[in-house]
Amino acid sequence: GHIKLVKALLSCQGVNKKEVGSGIISQFITTYLFPASKLISEGGLANNLPSKDISPQCDTPEARAAGYALLIELSKECSDNMKLISKELISLHHQYDANMVKEHQFEYEPAIERRSSSNFVGLKNAGATCYMNSVIQQLYTVPGVTEQILGVEI
After folding, report:
1. How far is the first Cα of the chain from the last one, in angstroms, to the nearest whole number?
2. How far is CA 1 from CA 22, 58, 75, in A?
3. Cβ-contact 27, 90 below 8 angstroms
4. 8 A C-beta contact, residue 22 and residue 84
């Protein structure tokens, strides 16, 4: 609710979006939307990762949508804010880090672990996981197969 309120207040007459944006954009992006990216960009992979929680403050789909809407509102008719948002996102997501790339690494583990409440994080790559995944996806389109697979007692 607070993010939507800030967004609504930005549309009021006399609000200086450039001033507001220069004060909140950087912290909003790095704390509320992409704290893990901030940690990685600061060398978090080279150092021992801290045990602090790196979950974003906006961690539900609704909160993230409100956060993105706020950034859009801040950038409307304010090219300075758009440049600042772009600069922040590029610095967080478009920097090459040799520590993240290892040739022929099949046992890739994310540098920062973030699990959903269900504790599912995806498939562990055993070397041909993508082929098996595509086969399973194709089988799920065959009538009756989905019901049989989901009906198996574990």
Report:
1. 42
2. 22, 11, 20
3. no
4. yes
